[in-house]
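Q: Convert this sequence to structure tokens.
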Amino acid sequence: MDLLQRCAQVFVQLLDVQYHIIAGRKGKTVEFTISFEPSDFHHLAGLHKLRDNARLQRGRRGDILRDVLGGRITLEQIQKSTFFHEMAPRLSPLSALEQFLDSNEIIFRYNTKANVFSVIQADYLLENTWEGSPVYLFLSQRRDEETQVCRTFFPKAGKDYTVGQPRYTLLRKEKIFLKTGERILQHDRLSHSTK
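A:
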């Protein structure tokens, strides 16, 4: 199994999961839920960066995840892209996405105006570390739904996206398994206990 396929397998395990988060700042709270769909993997893995691969640019996003899982799209194939270097740094941290989300990460309310040279549109920015370096996960509201989608995910490569962003304190986080309804309390500062 190559690294791209391992990332896809990690992502598929999240399709049955949601994270419900409550965060606070200056006496006000925000509450949001992160959800996952097969089509989300394409952008998180950086496959949109491979502009010289027509299959990845035009193919249905959910089908691309299935093709990676089935070994029909491989790391060896995408490494042939001239643009592979633009997406490559995402793969190792993406293989640990669930651990990233399970940890008690740092949350920022994302203000696009603070990063005027970026095209990223997001509501929240989560920061964590991977092998000693910061990694960013941007969230935005899923179209026609109340949940947040993991919009983009990449390690810090010079620019610090947290500068000028209002930092929130994580107050409560639950991991919810949709098929069983099981809820795991991962962090609870509201009742002064952490699991």
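Residues 3-188 form one domain.
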